[in-house]
Structures are given as C-alpha cells and as structure tokens.
C-alpha cells in the first residue's frame, strides 16, 4: 500500500532485473472476474502489455463503469507517454481498450483463458462459488488466481479438486493497480512450483515486480501494515498525539510517504475493520491476538459511516 523511501530506492534495481530476466510469459488470454477498482486496473495493465483480456462482471452497468475507470486511467498514461500528440494519445487508449472484451458470461470468458484472476467482492462464499464455476469452465491447464486481500487462498480453493488446487494461487495486486509495482504471488501448500514460476513470469511480463510468499493472513504487506495502523489508532485512543502529529512523525521520522491515518482513510476504514475483525475472530495463527483486537475509535467511525476519502470523512475531512 505504501513505500518507505528505502524500499522506493530498491524498486528500480528490481525492475532492471525483471527486464533482463527471462520474463516471457506463455499466458496470452486472461479473464478478470470483477470489474471494480481492482479488476479494471488488472485488466487495463494486462491489456497494455498485449494480453487479450475478458473482463467479467454481474451486469452491463458494472462493466461500463469498469471500462470508464480504464479509459480515465489510460488517458492519464497516454498524456505522459505522448505529451504533445493528442492523436497518439487517443490511438493508445483505443488500442489498449480494444484488447479488453466485456462479458457477463463467466463460463464463456474462463473457457478460453490461460489465466483467470478473480477480483470480485471480498466474501468467502461468493469466491468459493465463483471458483467452483471457474473450475468447471476453464481449460485444464489454466492457472486460477484470486486477488483477495484477507482470505486464505486454500480456503477459497477448498471446494476444488486436487488437480485444480495444484493450479490455484493468489495474485495480490495493490491499489491503484496501474501505479503500484508490487504483486504478491501467494503459494499454497498444494500449488505446483511450475504454476508459481508461470505466475511470476506473467507478473514480470506486465511490468510489475513479484514477491512470492506463503498463504498466511495478510501475506507480507498487510501482515506488517495492519498491526502498524492499529497501533497508530491505539496511540490516538490513549491521547498520545493527534492524527496529524502521528502522520507527520511517521512521514518525516520514518520516511513513509503517507502517515497511518492518511493510509486508513485512503484504504477505507470499513475495509481495515473487516480485515482485523476477521483475523481476530478466525485468522490462521492470529485469532485472539491483541494486535487485532477491536478498537472503539475505529468501530465508532465505521458505525457513523465515516469511512475515509470515499465518504468525505474518516480520521480527516475531505
Ligand atoms: N481495493 C483495494 O485496495 C484492494 C487491494 C487489493 C486487493 N483487493 C481485493 O480485490 C477484490 C476486489 O476489490 P475492489 O476494491 O475492486 O472491489 P469493488 O467493490 O470495487 O469491485 C468488485 C466488483 O466485483 C463485482 N462482482 C460482485 N460479484 C460478482 C460475481 N459473482 N461475478 C463477477 N463480478 C462480481 C462487483 O459488481 C464489482 O464491480 C477484493 O477481494 C479485495 O479484497 C482490494
């Protein structure tokens, strides 16, 4: 979600490695399930790197909204790429959008995909049902991936056959997808090494930097970030300092580009609460951990609908 300055310095080296490594991906056709914030970003980036993409959602309206997100974001990319050339800008946007088909037919979209990336809403039952449908429709050698932030990949894959489980992983992108370089490649105990290697090659091929990790709550980034943000909220509850002073301290003292309260407001307080409550209740190895115990302050803001930037008010007003 954010990059301390030391990490930001490491990224160009990692990128240079990615471009010289054998980053060729054999995957051509990608189906992205869910055309919201994340799914539309993933579809856009895959299409910008010459993949044929089908974006699937539950209604034409949702698909058009997803296409709108892509067009807006691509417009910004095009302006940077061709600063003085309006024609080249619109050609670029049309060309990339031309590689994205929109569909409400999950089975047809999965039927020809080498890789399916699910980015629908964060709900275990819904994801399990989606993957059961995908397993029935996708080619046998397709890779199935979920972009879940907080659910165990193995739990999402629970209803699948042993063969499908070997080809199921997590591909955790970061928001906003076109700008954020990292993708966590989440390896379950069942996943084949070849599937992980192919996923890593795909990630490099779309200009991102992979970090491979085990299927544990929060993977790498959120497992470190959420205790940090919850500790910041508890500093506030103990009246140690104001959100502004805590944010300033972490930006200027630790070199973080955003403070913890700015980050909470950006991510959405409901999302933070959903994740920590889930881990506190039933997180693998985390249940009952006081790091993730409910916070009265966070609960109060969520109850009032002050969810952050998206509602105009969270820890700050917008
Ligand atoms: N927003 C983030 O910062 C972020 C970051 C990383 C991962 N994620 C994960 O990505 C996933 C999507 O998050 P988002 O922020 O894009 O959500 P979103 O609400 O913006 O989009 C979800 C989309 O899924 C669609 N959908 C719902 N049911 C569906 C179904 N049965 N078939 C197809 N589409 C369906 C919805 O219509 C909607 O367009 C979640 O699992 C979330 O945890 C989110």
UniProtKB/TrEMBL annotation:
Domain 3-hydroxyacyl-CoA dehydrogenase C-terminal: 218-318
GO biological process: fatty acid beta-oxidation
PROSITE patterns: 3HCDH
Pathway entry: Lipid metabolism; fatty acid beta-oxidation
Residues annotated as binding CoA: 73, 80, 149
UniProt KW tRNA-binding keyword: no
Protein name: 3-hydroxyacyl-CoA dehydrogenase
The species this protein was found in: Coemansia biformis
């Amino acid at each position: 979600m954010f990059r301390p300055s030391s990490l930001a310095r490491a990224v160009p080296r990692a990128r240079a490695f990615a471009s010289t490594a054998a980053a060729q991906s054999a995957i051509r056709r990608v189906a992205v399930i869910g055309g919201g914030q994340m799914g539309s970003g993933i579809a856009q980036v895959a299409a910008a790197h010459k993949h044929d993409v089908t974006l699937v959602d539950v209604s034409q309206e949702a698909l058009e909204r997803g296409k709108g997100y892509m067009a807006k974001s691509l417009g910004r990319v095009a302006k940077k790429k061709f600063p003085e050339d309006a024609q080249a800008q619109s050609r670029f946007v049309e060309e990339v959008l031309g590689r994205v088909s929109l569909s409400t037919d999950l089975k047809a979209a999965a039927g020809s995909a080498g890789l399916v990336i699910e980015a629908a809403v964060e709900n275990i039952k819904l994801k399990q049902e989606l993957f059961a449908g995908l397993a029935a429709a996708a080619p046998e050698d397709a890779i199935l991936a979920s972009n879940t932030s907080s659910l165990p990949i193995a739990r999402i894959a629970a209803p699948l056959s042993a063969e499908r489980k070997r080809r199921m992983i997590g591909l955790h992108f970061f928001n906003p997808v076109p700008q954020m370089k990292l993708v966590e490649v989440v390896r379950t105990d069942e996943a084949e090494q070849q599937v992980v290697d192919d996923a890593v090659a795909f990630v490099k091929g779309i200009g991102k930097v992979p970090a491979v990790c085990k299927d544990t709550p929060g993977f790498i980034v959120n497992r470190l970030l959420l205790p940090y943000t919850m500790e910041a909220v508890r500093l506030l509850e103990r009246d140690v300092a104001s959100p502004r002073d805590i944010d300033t301290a972490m930006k200027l003292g630790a070199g973080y580009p955003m403070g913890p309260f700015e980050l909470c407001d950006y991510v959405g307080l409901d999302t933070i609460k959903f994740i920590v409550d889930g881990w506190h209740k039933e997180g693998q190895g985390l249940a009952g951990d006081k790091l993730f115990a409910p916070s009265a302050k966070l609960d109060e803001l969520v109850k009032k609908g002050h969810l952050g930037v998206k509602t105009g008010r969270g820890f700050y007003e917008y």
